[in-house]
Structure formats: structure tokens, C-alpha cells
Specification:
The protein is mostly helical. It is built from three helices and no strands. The chain is elongated, with a radius of gyration of 18 Å.
């Protein structure tokens, strides 16, 4: 799978989009994103991290 990383390469590009820095996520949005990003480790990594538990 390939993905593009979109963003400013220079400070001038960054400064030309000031509205972006005014974004603020609500706590419910942060929780939703954090949950979506959390992934269960595949065996044996989850087993090793949990000290013998695969959870």
C-alpha cells in the first residue's frame, strides 16, 4: 500500500494556511481517533508484552 504525505515543505507554505493551526479536537474525537489507531499486537509480540498474556 502506498500513501502520500500531504503537508507544507516550507514555512511560507505553512504560513499560507493559518486556519489549520486553529483546529481543536473535542475529547470525544480524540478518544475515537485513539481507539481507531490502537491495534492489537500479533502473536508472539502481544504475548511477550503482556508477560505471558496474549491480550
Amino acid at each position: 500500500m502506498t500513501a502520500s504525505i500531504v503537508g507544507a515543505r516550507t514555512m511560507e507554505q505553512f504560513a499560507s494556511h493559518p486556519a489549520v493551526v486553529d483546529w481543536e479536537l473535542e475529547s470525544s474525537q480524540v478518544k475515537r481517533l485513539t481507539g481507531a489507531a490502537r491495534r492489537r499486537l500479533p502473536c508472539p509480540y502481544g504475548f511477550q508484552k503482556g508477560g505471558g498474556s496474549d491480550d
